[in-house]
Design brief:
Blueprint lengths: L17 E3 L1 H27 L12 H21 L3 E6 L4 E8 L8 E6 L3 E9 L4 E10 L2 E4 L3 E2 L5 H14 L13
Antiparallel strand pairs: 1-2, 2-3, 3-4, 5-6, 6-7, 6-8
Helix pairs in contact: 1-2
């Protein structure tokens, strides 16, 4: 009864990731609404009620109005210019799932991209405006060739969230080098 048994144990780690930036989007919306209230309050106090006596801190009403207007426009327009989007990402199960919509002045259409991990053929990362605007374009192998999805803008994510998404996507397919205009060479 001398039988030799060979036992082989394979350990595979499966890390799944889910991420959404709903908290930062809610904070951004609160900041934008507060800035509207503060800007309108300033206009009422400075021009309609004339409660503030100018010059204030050595600056005239015009200078204060320009400074406050520029800050207000920066808070309101920066998310629009950088194309901030609500993003929900998941790589659980068989699919890579991106759900996103633009949060500009008017909320954009809600979009969803679901790509099976076996047919995911890569992505490109594009940076504009000194890296402030970043987008990912996803690619999927289909019977007729490679499908290119519309870009998902990562501008509203912090550095750590962007890194997690890129690490996750890299684990399923390499980055496609080249132009993002459909040229995948």
């Amino acid at each position: 009864m001398n039988e030799d048994y060979k036992i082989v144990i394979k350990f595979t780690k499966t890390f799944t990731m889910t991420l959404n930036n709903s908290k930062s989007i809610i904070n951004l919306k609160i900041i934008r609404r507060l800035s509207i209230i503060i800007f309108l309050a300033y206009l009422i106090i400075a021009f309609a009620a004339v409660i503030i006596k100018f010059p204030l801190l050595g600056m005239s009403r015009l200078v204060w109005t320009i400074i406050i207007l520029l800050i207000f426009l920066l808070i309101i327009l920066l998310p629009v210019v950088l194309n901030y989007q609500y993003i929900s990402y998941s790589d659980e199960g068989e699919n890579i799932i991106f759900r996103y919509y633009s949060i500009g002045f008017i909320t954009g259409n809600k979009n969803s991209v679901e790509i099976n991990k076996r047919t995911f053929s890569g992505f490109t990362l594009e940076k504009k405006f000194f890296g402030l605007m970043q987008s990912i374009t996803l690619y999927q192998r289909l019977k007729g060739g490679i499908a290119k999805y519309p870009p998902v803008y990562l501008s509203s994510l912090n550095r750590e969230e962007k890194a997690k998404i890129l690490r996750s996507l890299n684990s399923f397919a390499p980055i496609i080098k080249g132009e993002t205009q459909g040229n995948m060479s």
